[in-house]
Task: structure prediction
Amino acid sequence: MPRRRNGSNLAKWGIIGGAIAGGAALIPLIPLIKKRAMRVTTILKKDHRLVSGMILTLQMTPRINGMVRKTLYAQIRNDLMVHAQAEEEVLYPAMRNFMFTEARSNVDEAYRDHQQIKDLLNDLGTIDPLSDAFDGKLADLKRSIQHHVEQEEGEMFRILTQRMSTDQQQELGRRIHDRKIDLKMRMAA
Ligand SMILES: [Fe+2]
Ligand SMILES: [Fe+2]
Result:
């Protein structure tokens, strides 16, 4: 009996040890797998949530924290510019070229939305972040972004996920990820 128990324990530890060794071998690959598996819509939706969260934080930050408000606004502006540029260079042309005739009007509208958002960002850059005028313009920006995100996720992403294979969505995800990194580095330089 004891021998059998030892044998089964050894077998059990062997399996667990193998699993741990296998798991350890996989750990360095996890970031690569995650990056490779990221669909373009997943990356862009995460950006949308992040910017919405930052705008809400800015709205809730009291004017006495002037520096925090200025820093948050700069971060929102940079993130939005990188996101919009990457979409315009990678996603929108792909949507136009990918036989998505029904998506063309969505793409045209998206370019117009982006221009409106960029104009609002430029206006905000000229207004004191501790003023009522800034809060009013920020509310306009928030509304414009909400409308655009609803259109993008509800219409464009819906068509994209229906018509593109998983591989194609992941390839676009890789391209948009790389372009975002490049744009962020240029912005920081
Ligand atoms: Fe977007
Ligand atoms: Fe967009």
Remarks:
- The radius of gyration is 23 Å.
- Residues 1-37 form one domain.
- The first helix runs from residue 2 to 26.
